[in-house]
Structures are given as structure tokens and as C-alpha cells.
Amino acid sequence: MRLLILGGTKFLGRAAAEAALARGHEVTLFNRGRTNPELFPEAEKLRGDRDGDLPGLEGREWDAVIDPSGFVPRVVGASAELLRGAVGHYVYVSSISVYSESQEPGFDESGPLVELEDPEREDYLGSAEAYGGLKALCEQVVARTFPGSHANVRAGLIVGPHDPTGRFTYWPLRVAAGGDVLAPDHPGRLVQFVDVRDLGEWLVRLGEDRTSGTFNATGPERPLSIGELLEVCDRAGGAGAEIVWVEEPFLLDHGVGVWMELPLWVSREFEWFQQADNSRALAAGLRFRPVEETVRDTLAWARRSGASLVTSGQTGTAGMAPEREAELLRAWRER
Questions:
Q1: Model confidence, pTM
Q2: Which of 55, 75, 183, 249 is the 20 to 30 Å CA partner of 228?
Q3: What is the mean pLDDT of residues 194-220?
Q4: Mean pLDDT of 56-83
Q5: What is the model's pLDDT at position 3?
Q6: Is the peptide bond before 220 cis (omega within 30 degrees of 0)?
Q7: How many whole angstroms separate alpha carbon 185 and alpha carbon 292?
Q8: Residues 270, 307, 163, 127: is their CA dihedral positive or negative?
Q9: 170-194 burial, b if ≥16 CB within 10 A, otherwise e?
Q10: Main-chain dihedrals φ then ψ at residue 26, nearest 5 degrees
């Protein structure tokens, strides 16, 4: 298969490129050449910018394209329109965030989506609503441009080696450091995420098979609680950490930031966000490696790369500073 990847050297695109090359495909990467340009010397590299510099894509044909880097409808529309007739199948990476705040646990792909008051806005990092609403509009652009020959993949939290956000990496690192670990609410709360390598390979197979449809792409296959996840982290880290479960009202009263400052934690009114029905993706071939492998490999990569416990990036700062954690634990015990 001749496969075009828009991006391909950072995180999810990188995992898709690795999977595609391992499966023997002819891979072309289109990007600015600024992030890890030394990767994948065996792949063809076209230089350009999705926002206004697309001539490098003209006059070519591919069997499929994977788009893991589209956030704004105008930009996604420009590349989709240029590739119409030149690409057989369009695989667009969307997000679970497209769903409006009115879902029930176990929600499927038919749930209502975020609708923006201003569909022309482009500040996709301005809020969760803006991010989800713009992703939903991007899905519509792809569906209109490639009717019957596209897949809209609504990914959950993507985790694993090379994650630039730190939103999952915090837990393997923090638990491996040992001592008293502040954990949110109670151990039975469910969490969902998908290993970047599993998602990347599946995106390639969607292109291979020209699978069309809309999919909630998150895992694992069976329900997983945060208590179980932290047990896995403790076994991987080997430090014998002591998990201290701190109740949600205390966390909220002390201004602890959901999702980012304390990764994987959302307030109870939004627990549905981590309980998506992924049966459609499973039926289309999405498979998950063991959680133990994801945790172990993430921890190994984080140690090897010198990843920080608290990570500042484009999407904000993820992770709780040690002094903040110590202060909260002290207050929790003295309450």
C-alpha cells in the first residue's frame, strides 16, 4: 500500500509510520521537517505546511492517507480537498472530546456532539469545548469530501512511549518514585486510554482494508479501574508505594485541577467521559496489548528520555508537583 501520513514523526503519526513500515508499506511523510527529521530514512519525505503550504502534495496518488494532525476545519478541508481523487481512503483521527456533556456511561458513536456558537473559531486549545467542537467539524469536512471512503477515529487518551503531554506518564513515574502517592477519590473509578502503538497499527489497517465508519477508539477491552492501574504501576516501579485515596470534595475544595494536574481524574459528573463503548472499534479489529506492557514501556521510555514528573506542553501542564502533593497529603491527614 502507498500510504501518506500528514505528520508522522512526533507521537501517534510516528507510531503509525513505524507500523506501516514494519508491514512493508510504501510510506510518504508530509510535514515541516522540524520534529525528529532524522526518523524513518527509508520513508519518502515531502516538506510543507498543512496551513497554507500544500504544493508538495500536488500531482501524486496514494492508496490511503492517515491524518493525525488536523484540528481546524479550514486546514483539514484544504488537505482533504487537494487529496480528493488522489487518495483512495481517508483516515482521520478525531477525539472522544467531540461528545457533548450529556452522555451516559457506555455511550456509543450515535451520541450528540459539541456544537460551537462560532464555527469559524480556530483556537482549538482555548477550551475543551472548542477542541471537541472543532474536531467534530473536521469529521464533517472529511465525510463530505470522502463520502463512503473515510474513517473518523474518535480516540480516547493516547498513551505510551514518546507521549509529549505527560497525562499518563505521570502515574508510572510517580508510583515508581515510592512513598505516599496521592490518588483521586476511590480505587474503583474506571479509566480509559489507548496505547499509541495499538492505535497507530490499527489506523494503518483501516487504510489497508479501506474500512469506513466512525469509531470510539479507546480501551482497554475490559473495564479497568484506576486502582488496578496504580497496582500495575507499583509492580512495574518496584518501589512499594503507598496509595492514599483522597476524596473528591477535598480535591475540589483545594483547587486540584482535573485531568491535567491529577491525570486521569475527572469529577464525578463527567465520569461518563471514561466509559465509552468501544465495541464498534473492536469489531473493526482494534486490539490492545496488556496494560502491564503499556505501563512498563512508558516507564522505561520516561526514565531513558529523562521525562519530567510535571510536563509543560502545548496542551498545558500535566502532573502534580511534589511539594503540592506533600501539602495536600498533609492537609488531608489533618482535616
A1: 0.97
A2: 249
A3: 98
A4: 97
A5: 98
A6: yes
A7: 23
A8: positive
A9: bbbbbbbeeeebbbbbeeebbbbbb
A10: -90, 110
